[in-house]
Write a structure and sequence with these properties.
alpha+beta, Transcriptional Co-activator pc4, Chain A, 8-stranded antiparallel beta sheet, 8 strands
């Protein structure tokens, strides 16, 4: 039997260093997926935004900056309040969110009591997981060595607690689009003066 621990909280989506808007969110942890934590953001659209990343990353981020690429987490103090900064990046844009550290830390304490770090593999029923994978495979599928190697690599990442972050196609309410970059001109092009169109000579007009 699997257990789920959830926590509703309010984050702040930072639009600028001085301005942010509230974003209701839910933290979820499931013992059948012990290496991951799940964030659900309610942005006012019909479909909420889901992100999944390493539980170890979130735990470490409470104490020191960590992560790279799609998900980065670090502690900070804003207006004498301790907050946990979560930076998310996807092809749709970037978002910086601030969460109350005390709320996230209390939730992390609950899930680490349920599944202590280092014991995650004990909660995984590998026979059940394998049966699920086989039942989802097409009848005419014949995986080769490459697919087996990919499955083994995925299992190794889960066993080490370094699950790759999940990318969501987030609506613009959550992810701030990146600014478009103008192409740079080379120094030679920048120095080259523009030539105005030459006026035809009288003899050319007559011809």
């Amino acid at each position: 039997m699997h257990t789920t621990i959830e926590r509703e909280l309010e984050l702040r989506l930072m639009l600028s260093p001085e301005r942010g808007v509230p974003v209701p969110a839910r933290l979820s942890y499931r013992t059948d997926d012990p290496y991951a934590v799940h964030f659900t953001f309610h942005t006012g659209s019909e479909i909420p935004v889901h992100w999944t990343f390493s539980r170890e990353l979130l735990i470490e981020g409470v104490f020191r900056p960590c992560g790279h690429g799609d998900v980065r987490v670090w502690p900070a103090t804003v207006n004498a309040h301790n907050v946990l900064c979560v930076a998310l990046s996807s092809p749709d844009g970037d978002a910086l969110l601030e969460a109350p550290t005390v709320t996230v830390a209390a939730w992390l304490e609950r899930i680490t009591r349920l599944v202590p770090p280092g014991s995650e593999a004990e909660t995984v029923d590998f026979d059940e997981e394998l049966a699920t994978l086989l039942s989802d495979a097409p009848d005419d599928a014949h995986p080769g060595a490459d697919s087996r190697a990919e499955d083994a690599s995925h299992g190794a990442r889960e066993a080490s607690g370094t699950r790759e972050p999940h990318k969501s196609h987030a609506p613009p309410e959550l992810l701030k689009p990146r600014e478009a970059r103008k192409p740079r001109r080379s120094p030679r092009e920048a120095r080259k003066p523009r030539r105005s169109p030459r006026s035809p000579r009288p003899d050319e007009r007559d011809s």
